[in-house]
Amino acid sequence: MLRLLLGRSGFGKTYTVLNRLEELARLEEPGPLILLVPEQFSFASERALLERLGPRLAGAVQAVSYTHLRAHETDSYLV
């Protein structure tokens, strides 16, 4: 399911997203968890996930840029 979280700077969007991802990652079988971010924030997002969730839980979440998501979707249709 796609959920959009909108708001001005400093309103807790990142905090809310990381909390929810942590909750979902702790489930027994969380399924695919994708954090969609702009290209320039992909590294910072991966680092934030690792710092917040730790290595085990962060492995359950993919921080994906728009470009990477498009390439992945294109490849899945070609197979």
What's the helix-strand series? HEHEH
Overall geometry: globular
* Average predicted local confidence, pLDDT: 84
Strand content: 5-15%
Distance between the termini: 24 Å
Question: Which percent range fits the helix content?
Answer: 40-55%
Widest beta sheet: strand line-up = 1-2
Short description:
The protein is an alpha+beta fold. The protein contains three helices and two strands; from the N terminus they run αβαβα.
Report what the structure shows:
- Helices cover 54% and strands 13% of the residues.
- It has three helices and two strands; from the N terminus they run αβαβα.
- It has helices at 13-25, 42-58, 66-78; strands at 33-37, 61-65.
- The longest helix is centred in the middle third of the chain and has 17 residues, at 42-58.
- The radius of gyration is 13 Å and the shape is globular.
Ordered list of secondary-structure elements with their pairings:
Blueprint: H1 13-25, E1 33-37, H2 42-58, E2 61-65, H3 66-78
Parallel strand pairs: 1-2
Identify the notable features of this structure and list them briefly.
79 residues; alpha+beta; two-stranded parallel sheet; 2 strands
